[in-house]
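Self-study notes.
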Amino acid sequence: MGPAEIRELAAIVRTVAREELLPRFRRVAHQRKTDGSLLTEADLAVDARLRTELALHAPETAFLSEEMDPVVQEALLRDTSRPLWCLDPLDGTSNFAAGIPFFCVSLALLSGARVEFGIVYDPVRDECFTASRNLGAELNGNLLHTGSVTPALHDAVALIDLKRLTPDLRARLIERPPYHSQRNFGACALEWAWLAAGRGHVYLHGGQKLWDLAAGCLLLGEAGGASSDIHGDPVFRRGLAPRPVVAAVSPDLARDWLAHLQGED
């Protein structure tokens, strides 16, 4: 995907997020979906608007969103004959509903078994993270590279969602943390983007869906970081099953972090 198309897509996502999310922030009620996660009017508004905008931009590309029925999602993922948009219209819905200004829109372009392009846009800070395969990652047009922010594991700031870890691993990290300090911000795609920008050093999440990680793992990889699942396998997989995420701002730090999690250090 060339620079002109990246700018065009970024402008679309930016406009929709600023017009549909920000006016509703602190002003909308929410409901719970069958899986216990939250849903607001803002999720649905961004979903509908971007579905329309993306159909005009690339009518040949199919569209998958977190807000679709799982049966429809499965059918879309099985069809690899054409590219597929993968959208999380509001990542960090719990933050959004609670008035916490840490949320984003996440959009990825899937082709077969790969993520080819990703956008993570934070409308509160007007920060637009973009990545295209083999072309690098950018924040508002400025190149991202994590190589200059790589500490040893014992000096690292860790972004960790403790509640989705196994009880044994959670207890081990709380009682004997191998890192300097730990944070959890509550919006997966934006946490990936912050890691790509060097805001934190290692990452751990017990189970992310496709739309949580697709754009983010490409961003981090193109910025020079590395990710895997807890077994060391690629974190991106074209399917609906949640995936554990282990990531860091450099391949060496990612190896040390994974080895610790696997009990090998």
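Second protein, same conventions, sequence then structure:
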Amino acid sequence: MTAFERAHVIVVGNEKGGSGKSTTAMHLIAALMGLGRSVASIDADVRQRSLTRYLDNRRAHAAATGRILAIPEHEAFTGDADPADPRLRERLLATIQRFGDVHDVIVIDTPGNDTPLTRVVHSLADTLITPVNDSFVDLDVLARVEGPGDTGNERLKVIGPSHYSEMVWNARKQRAARDGGSVDWIVMRNRLSSLDAHNKRRVEHVLAELSRRFGFRQLPGFGERVVYRELFPNGLTLMDLGETAGGEPLTLSHVAARQEIRALVEALRVQPLTRTVAVAQSG
């Protein structure tokens, strides 16, 4: 058991693919580094490795253009690894301890499915961010919701937690038992549309009820913007735009999107934690 200045661990998790986990993780990394934080990153998705490819594109773009881009110290789990291999757990714990000695923040991207490694990652989070697309199809990752049927009542009924919510509950219990810490769970409404206000109100109502039941904070996340998909091939984020002479000028949409990212970072309440930990020996 050793005491050290432990980095704040941010896990971006959701068992549904296409929710924007890697985009969220990369923008958090860029924004935090832009604020002077020392950041490391881990890609725990041994199959897709989207965050790793994002960073590879970023390095290649910097080399090709001569731009100075902030790039975190990064650890990727290889695509031929078995997510159930217990050696991955030991490697993960060792990596977090190594990064935690020298960095302020560790951002971990996770796969869009349940694996033993995913469960360990969630139990190590100080902050868990779950991006959820603003639709009832995607809310199913949090809870089973029943429609109003033929009663004429538009209120939707929450039947019970989903597998993912139960996994998060177990991860929080493991974290509390291991070191007395807590997991601040944030559900981030992602790809918000400016249209369909009726659906948005219904989603907001259900999320408010789920927040009370499951103990997460609800935050508006990123709007639906094509620019997020366009930035990936060059490994760029919205925080990188408009920073160099000759670069494309920022549009009003870009400015609004950057403010969304800043608001998310402010809501994280990131603080380096000094406490006695024993992650390498934890069960």
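Instructor comment on the second fold: Residues 53 and 235 are 8 Å apart (CA to CA).
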